Amino acid sequence: MIEKANLEVFAETLLELARKDKDIIVVTSDSRGSGKLTNFGQELPDQIIEVGIAEQNLVGICAGLSAVGKKVFGVSPSSFLTARSLEQIKNDIAYSDHPVTLVGISAGVSYGQLGATHHSIHDIAVLRAINNINIVVPADNFETKEVIKSAVNFKHPLFIRFGKRPMTKLHDDGHKFIIGNGIKLKSGNDLAIIATGETVQRALKACELLEKININCTLISMHTIKPFDEEVFLNSVSKVKAVITIEEHSVSGGLGEKCASVMMQKNIHLPFKILGFPDEYMVNGSQKDVLDHYNMSAEKILEIAKKLIK
Amino acid sequence: MSIKNLKLKSIEYRKKILEIIFNGGAGHTAGSLSCIDILNVLYNKILDINPNNFSSYDRNHYIQSKGHSVEALYTVLCDKKFFSKDDLLTLNKFNSHFIGHPTKKIPGIEHNTGALGHGLSVAVGMAIGLKLNNKNFKIFTLLGDGELSEGSIWEALLSANKYNLDNLVVIVDRNKLQITGKTEDVNPIEPLKDKFNSFGLSTKEVDGNSVYELNEVFLKTPFEKNKVNVIIANTVKGKGISFMENEVVWHHKVPTKEQYNLALNELEELKINIEND
Protein backbone atom coordinates (compact mmCIF):
# COMPACT_ATOMS: atom_id res chain seq x y z
CA MET A 1 0.00 0.00 0.00
CA ILE A 2 1.41 3.38 -1.02
CA GLU A 3 1.39 5.92 1.80
CA LYS A 4 2.72 9.45 2.17
CA ALA A 5 6.27 10.69 1.77
CA ASN A 6 8.28 10.33 4.97
CA LEU A 7 8.90 14.06 4.70
CA GLU A 8 5.19 14.79 5.04
CA VAL A 9 4.83 12.42 7.97
CA PHE A 10 7.79 14.08 9.66
CA ALA A 11 6.24 17.55 9.28
CA GLU A 12 2.77 16.45 10.44
CA THR A 13 4.15 14.59 13.44
CA LEU A 14 6.33 17.47 14.49
CA LEU A 15 3.45 19.95 14.25
CA GLU A 16 1.23 17.64 16.29
CA LEU A 17 3.89 17.31 19.00
CA ALA A 18 4.80 21.00 19.00
CA ARG A 19 1.17 22.07 19.56
CA LYS A 20 1.33 20.34 22.92
CA ASP A 21 4.89 21.29 23.85
CA LYS A 22 5.97 24.92 23.61
CA ASP A 23 9.60 23.94 24.19
CA ILE A 24 9.76 22.27 20.77
CA ILE A 25 11.57 24.67 18.44
CA VAL A 26 12.27 24.17 14.75
CA VAL A 27 15.21 25.91 13.11
CA THR A 28 15.26 26.27 9.32
CA SER A 29 17.66 27.69 6.73
CA ASP A 30 15.20 28.94 4.12
CA SER A 31 14.09 25.30 4.15
CA ARG A 32 10.58 25.42 5.63
CA GLY A 33 9.02 24.84 2.21
CA SER A 34 11.40 22.01 1.35
CA GLY A 35 10.75 20.60 4.82
CA LYS A 36 6.94 20.80 4.46
CA LEU A 37 6.97 23.11 7.47
CA THR A 38 4.99 26.00 5.98
CA ASN A 39 1.93 25.00 8.03
CA PHE A 40 4.08 24.72 11.12
CA GLY A 41 5.38 28.25 10.56
CA GLN A 42 1.87 29.64 10.09
CA GLU A 43 0.33 27.89 13.06
CA LEU A 44 3.23 28.15 15.51
CA PRO A 45 5.26 31.20 14.44
CA ASP A 46 6.89 31.49 17.87
CA GLN A 47 8.28 27.97 17.61
CA ILE A 48 10.16 28.36 14.34
CA ILE A 49 13.47 30.16 13.98
CA GLU A 50 14.50 31.11 10.45
CA VAL A 51 18.21 31.82 9.89
CA GLY A 52 18.21 32.19 6.11
CA ILE A 53 20.63 30.29 3.92
CA ALA A 54 23.26 29.82 6.58
CA GLU A 55 23.59 26.20 7.66
CA GLN A 56 26.60 26.69 9.93
CA ASN A 57 24.66 29.29 11.87
CA LEU A 58 21.61 27.01 11.92
CA VAL A 59 23.52 24.27 13.72
CA GLY A 60 25.17 26.67 16.18
CA ILE A 61 21.82 28.27 17.02
CA CYS A 62 20.33 24.81 17.54
CA ALA A 63 23.07 24.09 20.09
CA GLY A 64 22.42 27.38 21.88
CA LEU A 65 18.65 26.87 22.06
CA SER A 66 19.24 23.41 23.46
CA ALA A 67 21.68 24.83 26.03
CA VAL A 68 18.82 26.83 27.56
CA GLY A 69 16.39 23.91 27.63
CA LYS A 70 14.64 23.91 24.28
CA LYS A 71 13.82 20.70 22.38
CA VAL A 72 15.35 21.56 19.07
CA PHE A 73 14.89 20.23 15.52
CA GLY A 74 17.30 21.66 12.94
CA VAL A 75 15.85 21.02 9.50
CA SER A 76 17.83 21.52 6.29
CA PRO A 77 18.69 19.57 3.14
CA SER A 78 20.94 16.74 4.27
CA SER A 79 23.68 17.60 1.81
CA PHE A 80 24.19 21.14 3.13
CA LEU A 81 23.44 20.28 6.74
CA THR A 82 26.06 17.56 7.00
CA ALA A 83 28.80 18.95 4.73
CA ARG A 84 28.64 22.73 5.08
CA SER A 85 28.03 22.48 8.83
CA LEU A 86 30.00 19.37 9.64
CA GLU A 87 32.30 21.17 12.07
CA GLN A 88 29.33 22.69 13.90
CA ILE A 89 27.76 19.22 14.16
CA LYS A 90 31.04 17.77 15.42
CA ASN A 91 31.85 20.46 17.99
CA ASP A 92 28.66 22.30 18.93
CA ILE A 93 26.26 19.35 18.91
CA ALA A 94 28.14 16.06 19.33
CA TYR A 95 31.24 17.03 21.35
CA SER A 96 29.26 19.50 23.46
CA ASP A 97 26.51 16.86 23.86
CA HIS A 98 23.51 19.05 23.19
CA PRO A 99 20.46 16.81 22.61
CA VAL A 100 19.53 18.43 19.28
CA THR A 101 17.78 16.50 16.50
CA LEU A 102 19.20 17.32 13.10
CA VAL A 103 16.86 16.39 10.28
CA GLY A 104 18.48 15.92 6.87
CA ILE A 105 15.71 16.29 4.31
CA SER A 106 15.94 15.20 0.67
CA ALA A 107 18.74 12.81 1.56
CA GLY A 108 20.50 10.35 -0.72
CA VAL A 109 19.73 11.14 -4.35
CA SER A 110 16.22 12.50 -3.67
CA TYR A 111 17.08 15.64 -5.60
CA GLY A 112 17.59 13.57 -8.75
CA GLN A 113 18.57 15.71 -11.72
CA LEU A 114 19.67 18.63 -9.52
CA GLY A 115 22.94 16.75 -9.32
CA ALA A 116 25.84 16.10 -7.03
CA THR A 117 25.81 19.44 -5.20
CA HIS A 118 22.41 18.46 -3.80
CA HIS A 119 22.92 14.74 -3.33
CA SER A 120 23.77 13.57 0.14
CA ILE A 121 25.53 10.26 -0.14
CA HIS A 122 28.30 11.07 2.34
CA ASP A 123 26.20 11.94 5.41
CA ILE A 124 26.09 8.54 7.07
CA ALA A 125 29.82 7.99 6.54
CA VAL A 126 30.95 11.32 7.96
CA LEU A 127 28.61 11.20 10.94
CA ARG A 128 29.51 7.57 11.72
CA ALA A 129 33.06 8.79 12.35
CA ILE A 130 31.92 11.40 14.87
CA ASN A 131 31.50 10.35 18.47
CA ASN A 132 28.19 10.91 20.25
CA ILE A 133 25.70 11.30 17.44
CA ASN A 134 23.05 8.70 16.70
CA ILE A 135 22.01 8.11 13.09
CA VAL A 136 18.53 7.00 12.07
CA VAL A 137 17.27 6.43 8.51
CA PRO A 138 13.56 5.56 8.68
CA ALA A 139 12.18 3.34 5.95
CA ASP A 140 8.48 4.15 5.91
CA ASN A 141 5.81 6.38 7.42
CA PHE A 142 5.59 4.31 10.60
CA GLU A 143 9.33 4.42 11.28
CA THR A 144 9.41 8.14 10.48
CA LYS A 145 6.58 8.97 12.85
CA GLU A 146 8.05 6.85 15.61
CA VAL A 147 11.56 8.27 15.33
CA ILE A 148 10.25 11.85 15.46
CA LYS A 149 8.19 11.01 18.55
CA SER A 150 11.26 9.41 20.16
CA ALA A 151 13.47 12.36 19.22
CA VAL A 152 11.57 14.93 21.30
CA ASN A 153 12.90 13.71 24.61
CA PHE A 154 16.01 11.94 23.35
CA LYS A 155 18.92 12.74 25.63
CA HIS A 156 21.75 12.97 23.08
CA PRO A 157 22.45 14.27 19.58
CA LEU A 158 20.43 12.59 16.86
CA PHE A 159 20.61 12.75 13.07
CA ILE A 160 17.64 11.61 11.00
CA ARG A 161 17.60 11.56 7.20
CA PHE A 162 14.96 10.66 4.64
CA GLY A 163 13.65 11.45 1.17
CA LYS A 164 10.51 12.96 -0.24
CA ARG A 165 8.79 10.30 -2.37
CA PRO A 166 5.68 8.41 -1.20
CA MET A 167 6.61 5.19 0.54
CA THR A 168 5.17 1.69 0.71
CA LYS A 169 3.70 0.61 4.03
CA LEU A 170 6.08 -1.92 5.58
CA HIS A 171 4.95 -2.45 9.13
CA ASP A 172 1.78 -3.64 10.78
CA ASP A 173 0.12 -1.19 13.14
CA GLY A 174 1.14 -1.48 16.76
CA HIS A 175 4.67 -2.53 15.92
CA LYS A 176 7.32 -1.50 18.43
CA PHE A 177 9.96 1.02 17.35
CA ILE A 178 13.06 1.68 19.42
CA ILE A 179 16.05 3.74 18.27
CA GLY A 180 18.92 1.27 18.03
CA ASN A 181 16.82 -1.83 17.36
CA GLY A 182 16.65 -3.06 13.77
CA ILE A 183 13.32 -4.49 12.65
CA LYS A 184 13.04 -7.95 11.08
CA LEU A 185 10.53 -7.86 8.21
CA LYS A 186 11.07 -11.38 6.91
CA SER A 187 12.70 -14.62 8.07
CA GLY A 188 14.36 -17.04 5.66
CA ASN A 189 17.43 -19.28 5.67
CA ASP A 190 18.99 -18.63 2.25
CA LEU A 191 19.83 -14.96 2.08
CA ALA A 192 19.92 -12.03 4.47
CA ILE A 193 19.24 -8.56 3.11
CA ILE A 194 20.14 -5.70 5.41
CA ALA A 195 18.72 -2.44 4.08
CA THR A 196 18.16 1.03 5.44
CA GLY A 197 15.82 3.90 4.67
CA GLU A 198 13.89 4.02 1.47
CA THR A 199 15.79 1.12 -0.09
CA VAL A 200 13.99 -1.26 2.28
CA GLN A 201 10.92 -1.27 0.05
CA ARG A 202 13.11 -2.19 -2.94
CA ALA A 203 14.63 -4.97 -0.86
CA LEU A 204 11.16 -6.19 0.07
CA LYS A 205 10.17 -6.43 -3.60
CA ALA A 206 13.38 -8.34 -4.29
CA CYS A 207 12.56 -10.77 -1.46
CA GLU A 208 9.16 -11.42 -3.04
CA LEU A 209 10.80 -12.19 -6.41
CA LEU A 210 13.37 -14.43 -4.72
CA GLU A 211 10.71 -16.38 -2.88
CA LYS A 212 9.16 -17.31 -6.23
CA ILE A 213 12.37 -19.14 -7.11
CA ASN A 214 12.59 -20.68 -3.66
CA ILE A 215 15.25 -18.42 -2.27
CA ASN A 216 14.02 -17.49 1.18
CA CYS A 217 15.20 -14.24 2.66
CA THR A 218 15.66 -12.62 6.00
CA LEU A 219 15.06 -8.89 5.62
CA ILE A 220 16.09 -6.32 8.21
CA SER A 221 15.12 -2.67 8.19
CA MET A 222 18.26 -1.35 9.84
CA HIS A 223 16.80 2.07 10.52
CA THR A 224 19.44 2.91 13.11
CA ILE A 225 22.95 2.95 11.68
CA LYS A 226 24.46 4.12 14.94
CA PRO A 227 24.31 2.63 17.49
CA PHE A 228 24.40 -0.47 15.31
CA ASP A 229 22.13 -3.35 16.32
CA GLU A 230 24.70 -6.15 16.38
CA GLU A 231 22.27 -8.56 17.96
CA VAL A 232 19.63 -8.48 15.26
CA PHE A 233 22.33 -8.36 12.59
CA LEU A 234 24.29 -11.37 13.85
CA ASN A 235 21.08 -13.26 14.44
CA SER A 236 20.01 -12.70 10.84
CA VAL A 237 23.33 -13.63 9.21
CA SER A 238 23.96 -16.69 11.38
CA LYS A 239 21.76 -19.10 9.41
CA VAL A 240 22.00 -17.84 5.81
CA LYS A 241 24.29 -18.59 2.85
CA ALA A 242 24.88 -15.03 1.69
CA VAL A 243 24.36 -11.40 2.70
CA ILE A 244 23.41 -8.29 0.70
CA THR A 245 23.33 -4.78 2.13
CA ILE A 246 21.47 -1.92 0.44
CA GLU A 247 21.68 1.80 1.13
CA GLU A 248 21.00 5.06 -0.74
CA HIS A 249 24.50 6.21 0.11
CA SER A 250 28.10 5.81 -0.97
CA VAL A 251 29.48 2.30 -0.51
CA SER A 252 32.30 4.00 1.43
CA GLY A 253 31.65 4.20 5.14
CA GLY A 254 27.97 3.36 5.18
CA LEU A 255 25.78 0.49 6.36
CA GLY A 256 27.45 -2.10 4.13
CA GLU A 257 30.95 -1.47 5.39
CA LYS A 258 29.66 -1.49 8.96
CA CYS A 259 28.08 -4.92 8.38
CA ALA A 260 31.26 -6.23 6.72
CA SER A 261 33.33 -5.03 9.64
CA VAL A 262 31.11 -6.76 12.19
CA MET A 263 31.13 -10.03 10.24
CA MET A 264 34.91 -10.05 9.76
CA GLN A 265 35.52 -9.43 13.43
CA LYS A 266 33.10 -12.18 14.40
CA ASN A 267 34.75 -14.65 11.99
CA ILE A 268 31.64 -14.92 9.84
CA HIS A 269 32.73 -15.48 6.25
CA LEU A 270 29.89 -15.50 3.72
CA PRO A 271 29.41 -14.35 0.13
CA PHE A 272 28.71 -10.65 0.62
CA LYS A 273 27.66 -7.72 -1.55
CA ILE A 274 27.32 -4.03 -0.68
CA LEU A 275 24.82 -2.16 -2.86
CA GLY A 276 25.19 1.60 -2.88
CA PHE A 277 26.84 4.30 -4.95
CA PRO A 278 30.39 3.60 -6.17
CA ASP A 279 33.27 6.04 -5.91
CA GLU A 280 32.76 7.64 -9.33
CA TYR A 281 31.29 10.71 -11.04
CA MET A 282 27.65 9.78 -10.65
CA VAL A 283 25.22 9.17 -13.47
CA ASN A 284 22.50 11.82 -13.83
CA GLY A 285 18.82 11.01 -13.57
CA SER A 286 15.78 10.80 -11.34
CA GLN A 287 16.12 9.20 -7.93
CA LYS A 288 14.48 6.05 -9.29
CA ASP A 289 16.68 5.89 -12.37
CA VAL A 290 19.86 6.45 -10.38
CA LEU A 291 18.97 3.76 -7.83
CA ASP A 292 18.08 1.36 -10.64
CA HIS A 293 21.31 2.15 -12.48
CA TYR A 294 23.38 1.25 -9.44
CA ASN A 295 21.76 -2.20 -9.07
CA MET A 296 19.21 -1.26 -6.43
CA SER A 297 16.12 -2.42 -8.37
CA ALA A 298 14.32 -5.58 -7.27
CA GLU A 299 15.30 -7.29 -10.53
CA LYS A 300 19.02 -6.48 -10.17
CA ILE A 301 18.99 -7.51 -6.52
CA LEU A 302 17.47 -10.81 -7.64
CA GLU A 303 20.29 -11.41 -10.14
CA ILE A 304 22.96 -10.51 -7.62
CA ALA A 305 21.40 -12.80 -5.01
CA LYS A 306 21.30 -15.75 -7.41
CA LYS A 307 25.00 -15.37 -8.22
CA LEU A 308 25.96 -14.99 -4.56
CA ILE A 309 24.11 -18.13 -3.50
CA LYS A 310 25.38 -20.25 -6.38
CA MET B 1 34.57 44.62 44.58
CA SER B 2 36.26 48.03 44.27
CA ILE B 3 38.12 49.07 41.14
CA LYS B 4 41.37 48.91 43.08
CA ASN B 5 40.64 45.35 44.17
CA LEU B 6 39.70 44.45 40.60
CA LYS B 7 43.07 45.74 39.47
CA LEU B 8 44.76 43.62 42.11
CA LYS B 9 42.70 40.63 40.98
CA SER B 10 43.99 41.12 37.44
CA ILE B 11 47.56 40.95 38.76
CA GLU B 12 46.78 37.80 40.75
CA TYR B 13 45.13 36.24 37.68
CA ARG B 14 48.06 37.10 35.42
CA LYS B 15 50.42 35.37 37.87
CA LYS B 16 48.18 32.30 37.92
CA ILE B 17 47.94 32.19 34.10
CA LEU B 18 51.72 32.20 33.83
CA GLU B 19 52.04 29.61 36.59
CA ILE B 20 49.68 27.09 34.98
CA ILE B 21 51.17 27.58 31.51
CA PHE B 22 54.70 27.24 32.90
CA ASN B 23 53.68 24.18 34.89
CA GLY B 24 51.63 22.63 32.07
CA GLY B 25 54.28 23.22 29.44
CA ALA B 26 51.88 24.75 26.90
CA GLY B 27 49.29 27.47 26.58
CA HIS B 28 48.10 30.55 24.74
CA THR B 29 50.04 32.96 26.88
CA ALA B 30 49.62 36.33 25.20
CA GLY B 31 45.93 35.96 24.29
CA SER B 32 45.07 34.92 27.84
CA LEU B 33 46.89 38.00 29.15
CA SER B 34 45.04 40.27 26.71
CA CYS B 35 41.54 39.10 27.72
CA ILE B 36 41.97 38.46 31.46
CA ASP B 37 40.75 41.91 32.50
CA ILE B 38 37.53 41.30 30.56
CA LEU B 39 36.95 37.97 32.33
CA ASN B 40 37.89 39.53 35.66
CA VAL B 41 35.20 42.22 35.39
CA LEU B 42 32.60 39.82 33.99
CA TYR B 43 32.98 37.19 36.70
CA ASN B 44 33.55 39.55 39.63
CA LYS B 45 31.11 42.36 38.79
CA ILE B 46 28.61 41.43 36.11
CA LEU B 47 27.75 37.78 35.52
CA ASP B 48 26.90 36.45 38.99
CA ILE B 49 27.66 32.90 37.89
CA ASN B 50 28.77 30.60 40.69
CA PRO B 51 28.81 26.88 41.49
CA ASN B 52 25.42 27.19 43.23
CA ASN B 53 23.47 28.66 40.31
CA PHE B 54 25.44 27.13 37.43
CA SER B 55 23.08 24.22 36.77
CA SER B 56 20.12 26.59 36.25
CA TYR B 57 19.20 28.15 32.91
CA ASP B 58 17.95 31.19 34.80
CA ARG B 59 21.13 33.18 35.14
CA ASN B 60 23.51 35.10 32.91
CA HIS B 61 25.67 33.02 30.58
CA TYR B 62 29.21 33.24 29.19
CA ILE B 63 30.50 31.51 26.06
CA GLN B 64 34.18 31.88 25.25
CA SER B 65 34.34 31.65 21.49
CA LYS B 66 38.10 32.32 21.45
CA GLY B 67 38.57 29.01 23.20
CA HIS B 68 42.35 29.00 22.98
CA SER B 69 42.61 31.61 25.75
CA VAL B 70 41.31 28.94 28.09
CA GLU B 71 44.00 29.54 30.70
CA ALA B 72 42.37 32.89 31.48
CA LEU B 73 39.00 31.18 31.87
CA TYR B 74 40.38 28.36 34.05
CA THR B 75 42.07 30.93 36.29
CA VAL B 76 38.88 32.89 36.88
CA LEU B 77 36.69 29.80 37.35
CA CYS B 78 39.18 28.44 39.89
CA ASP B 79 38.97 31.73 41.79
CA LYS B 80 35.16 31.44 41.71
CA LYS B 81 35.54 28.02 43.41
CA PHE B 82 34.33 25.86 40.53
CA PHE B 83 37.34 23.59 41.17
CA SER B 84 40.50 23.55 43.26
CA LYS B 85 43.94 24.96 42.55
CA ASP B 86 45.28 21.41 42.62
CA ASP B 87 42.84 20.45 39.83
CA LEU B 88 44.16 23.32 37.77
CA LEU B 89 47.73 22.09 38.08
CA THR B 90 46.75 18.99 36.08
CA LEU B 91 46.57 21.25 32.98
CA ASN B 92 47.87 19.33 29.95
CA LYS B 93 48.73 16.22 32.00
CA PHE B 94 47.68 12.80 30.70
CA ASN B 95 43.99 12.06 31.22
CA SER B 96 43.20 15.48 32.68
CA HIS B 97 40.07 17.30 31.50
CA PHE B 98 42.07 20.54 31.78
CA ILE B 99 43.18 20.72 28.15
CA GLY B 100 44.07 23.56 25.81
CA HIS B 101 40.46 24.47 24.99
CA PRO B 102 37.26 24.72 27.06
CA THR B 103 35.02 21.69 27.53
CA LYS B 104 31.89 21.05 29.56
CA LYS B 105 33.84 18.41 31.49
CA ILE B 106 35.17 21.35 33.51
CA PRO B 107 32.71 22.76 36.07
CA GLY B 108 31.69 26.29 35.11
CA ILE B 109 32.10 25.87 31.34
CA GLU B 110 28.88 25.66 29.35
CA HIS B 111 29.99 24.96 25.81
CA ASN B 112 32.96 23.28 24.14
CA THR B 113 34.92 25.67 21.96
CA GLY B 114 38.28 25.75 20.24
CA ALA B 115 37.50 25.74 16.54
CA LEU B 116 36.98 29.42 15.78
CA GLY B 117 33.77 31.04 14.57
CA HIS B 118 31.45 28.77 16.58
CA GLY B 119 30.67 30.44 19.89
CA LEU B 120 28.70 33.37 18.52
CA SER B 121 26.00 31.25 16.83
CA VAL B 122 25.62 29.27 20.03
CA ALA B 123 25.32 32.48 22.02
CA VAL B 124 22.70 33.73 19.55
CA GLY B 125 20.72 30.51 20.05
CA MET B 126 20.90 30.93 23.82
CA ALA B 127 19.83 34.57 23.60
CA ILE B 128 16.83 33.65 21.42
CA GLY B 129 15.96 30.84 23.84
CA LEU B 130 16.07 33.12 26.88
CA LYS B 131 13.83 35.63 25.11
CA LEU B 132 11.38 32.85 24.21
CA ASN B 133 11.39 31.87 27.89
CA ASN B 134 10.72 35.54 28.82
CA LYS B 135 13.86 35.57 30.94
CA ASN B 136 15.71 38.78 31.55
CA PHE B 137 19.23 37.35 31.60
CA LYS B 138 22.14 38.19 29.31
CA ILE B 139 24.52 36.16 27.19
CA PHE B 140 28.10 37.37 26.99
CA THR B 141 30.48 35.97 24.42
CA LEU B 142 34.14 36.71 23.82
CA LEU B 143 35.54 36.62 20.28
CA GLY B 144 39.09 36.99 19.10
CA ASP B 145 39.84 39.59 16.44
CA GLY B 146 41.58 37.06 14.17
CA GLU B 147 38.46 34.94 14.57
CA LEU B 148 36.42 37.59 12.76
CA SER B 149 37.67 36.23 9.41
CA GLU B 150 35.36 33.22 9.93
CA GLY B 151 32.26 33.67 7.76
CA SER B 152 30.06 32.02 10.38
CA ILE B 153 30.57 35.07 12.62
CA TRP B 154 28.80 37.26 10.10
CA GLU B 155 26.02 34.71 9.58
CA ALA B 156 25.45 34.79 13.32
CA LEU B 157 25.40 38.61 13.45
CA LEU B 158 22.70 38.73 10.76
CA SER B 159 20.49 36.47 12.88
CA ALA B 160 21.31 38.31 16.10
CA ASN B 161 20.16 41.54 14.48
CA LYS B 162 17.04 39.93 13.00
CA TYR B 163 15.94 38.68 16.42
CA ASN B 164 16.67 42.04 18.17
CA LEU B 165 18.97 40.38 20.69
CA ASP B 166 19.62 43.22 23.10
CA ASN B 167 20.30 40.50 25.69
CA LEU B 168 23.42 39.49 23.76
CA VAL B 169 26.77 41.15 24.50
CA VAL B 170 29.47 40.41 21.93
CA ILE B 171 32.95 41.33 23.13
CA VAL B 172 35.87 41.42 20.70
CA ASP B 173 39.30 41.01 22.26
CA ARG B 174 40.90 43.46 19.83
CA ASN B 175 44.58 42.79 20.51
CA LYS B 176 45.40 43.30 16.82
CA LEU B 177 47.61 40.22 16.52
CA GLN B 178 47.03 36.64 15.43
CA ILE B 179 49.39 33.69 15.09
CA THR B 180 50.87 34.85 11.77
CA GLY B 181 51.19 38.54 12.57
CA LYS B 182 49.08 41.69 12.62
CA THR B 183 45.39 41.16 11.88
CA GLU B 184 45.53 44.05 9.44
CA ASP B 185 48.30 42.32 7.48
CA VAL B 186 46.86 38.80 7.61
CA ASN B 187 43.30 39.71 6.60
CA PRO B 188 42.22 43.28 7.37
CA ILE B 189 39.02 43.69 9.40
CA GLU B 190 38.94 47.46 9.80
CA PRO B 191 36.91 49.64 9.87
CA LEU B 192 35.46 47.24 12.40
CA LYS B 193 33.04 49.51 14.24
CA ASP B 194 31.52 50.60 10.93
CA LYS B 195 31.12 46.99 9.88
CA PHE B 196 29.26 46.08 13.07
CA ASN B 197 27.08 49.18 12.92
CA SER B 198 26.23 48.53 9.28
CA PHE B 199 24.84 45.16 10.44
CA GLY B 200 22.40 47.08 12.64
CA LEU B 201 24.29 46.47 15.88
CA SER B 202 25.09 48.95 18.65
CA THR B 203 28.85 49.16 19.05
CA LYS B 204 31.07 50.76 21.70
CA GLU B 205 34.86 50.82 21.96
CA VAL B 206 36.71 50.67 25.26
CA ASP B 207 40.18 50.11 26.65
CA GLY B 208 39.86 46.36 27.15
CA ASN B 209 42.61 46.28 29.74
CA SER B 210 40.94 48.92 31.90
CA VAL B 211 38.77 47.24 34.51
CA TYR B 212 37.12 50.61 35.14
CA GLU B 213 36.10 51.17 31.51
CA LEU B 214 34.99 47.55 31.11
CA ASN B 215 32.80 47.72 34.20
CA GLU B 216 31.23 50.98 33.02
CA VAL B 217 30.47 49.68 29.53
CA PHE B 218 29.01 46.38 30.78
CA LEU B 219 26.71 48.31 33.13
CA LYS B 220 25.40 50.28 30.15
CA THR B 221 24.03 47.17 28.39
CA PRO B 222 21.64 47.08 26.65
CA PHE B 223 23.02 50.11 24.85
CA GLU B 224 19.83 50.48 22.81
CA LYS B 225 16.50 48.69 22.96
CA ASN B 226 16.24 45.75 20.53
CA LYS B 227 19.85 46.12 19.38
CA VAL B 228 22.71 43.68 19.80
CA ASN B 229 25.49 45.04 22.03
CA VAL B 230 29.00 44.88 20.59
CA ILE B 231 32.04 45.95 22.60
CA ILE B 232 35.33 46.35 20.80
CA ALA B 233 37.74 45.89 23.68
CA ASN B 234 41.06 47.35 22.57
CA THR B 235 43.66 45.27 24.35
CA VAL B 236 47.36 44.56 24.29
CA LYS B 237 48.42 41.02 23.54
CA GLY B 238 50.72 39.84 26.35
CA LYS B 239 49.47 42.72 28.55
CA GLY B 240 51.37 43.25 31.80
CA ILE B 241 54.66 41.61 30.87
CA SER B 242 56.99 44.05 29.10
CA PHE B 243 58.75 41.50 26.92
CA MET B 244 55.52 39.77 25.87
CA GLU B 245 53.46 42.83 24.98
CA ASN B 246 52.66 43.10 21.26
CA GLU B 247 55.13 40.33 20.44
CA VAL B 248 53.54 37.85 18.03
CA VAL B 249 55.88 35.07 19.16
CA TRP B 250 54.11 34.85 22.55
CA HIS B 251 50.85 33.67 20.96
CA HIS B 252 51.57 30.10 22.03
CA LYS B 253 54.99 30.34 23.69
CA VAL B 254 55.81 29.02 27.14
CA PRO B 255 58.18 31.08 29.30
CA THR B 256 61.48 29.60 30.44
CA LYS B 257 62.13 29.47 34.18
CA GLU B 258 64.10 32.70 33.91
CA GLN B 259 61.41 34.46 31.87
CA TYR B 260 58.75 33.18 34.26
CA ASN B 261 60.58 34.67 37.26
CA LEU B 262 61.15 37.91 35.41
CA ALA B 263 57.46 38.12 34.57
CA LEU B 264 56.44 37.46 38.17
CA ASN B 265 58.77 40.23 39.32
CA GLU B 266 57.21 42.67 36.87
CA LEU B 267 53.73 41.75 38.08
CA GLU B 268 54.84 42.14 41.70
CA GLU B 269 56.03 45.66 40.92
CA LEU B 270 52.71 46.48 39.26
CA LYS B 271 50.94 45.16 42.32
CA ILE B 272 52.92 47.38 44.68
CA ASN B 273 52.16 50.38 42.47
CA ILE B 274 48.44 49.63 42.60
CA GLU B 275 48.51 49.11 46.37
CA ASN B 276 50.29 52.45 46.87
CA ASP B 277 48.02 54.27 44.44
Word description of this protein:
Chain A is built from 12 helices and 14 strands. By secondary structure, chain A is of the alpha/beta class. Chain A has 2 domains: 2-168, 3-Layer(aba) Sandwich (Rossmann fold), CATH 3.40.50; 183-309, 3-Layer(aba) Sandwich (Rossmann fold), CATH 3.40.50. In chain A, β10, α8 and β11 form a beta-alpha-beta unit. The two termini of chain A are 33 Å apart. In chain A, 52% of the residues are buried. The model of chain A has no long low-confidence stretch (mean pLDDT 97). With 277 residues, chain B is of the alpha/beta class. Chain B contains 10 helices and 7 strands. In chain B, strands 1-2-3-7-6 form a 5-stranded parallel beta sheet, with helices on both faces. Chain B has a two-stranded antiparallel ribbon with strand order 4-5. In chain B, α1 crosses α3. The longest helix of chain B is centred in the first third of the chain and has 22 residues, at 3-24. The radius of gyration of chain B is 18 Å and the shape is globular. The model of chain B has no long low-confidence stretch (mean pLDDT 97). Chains A and B meet through α3 and α5 of A and α5 and α6 of B.
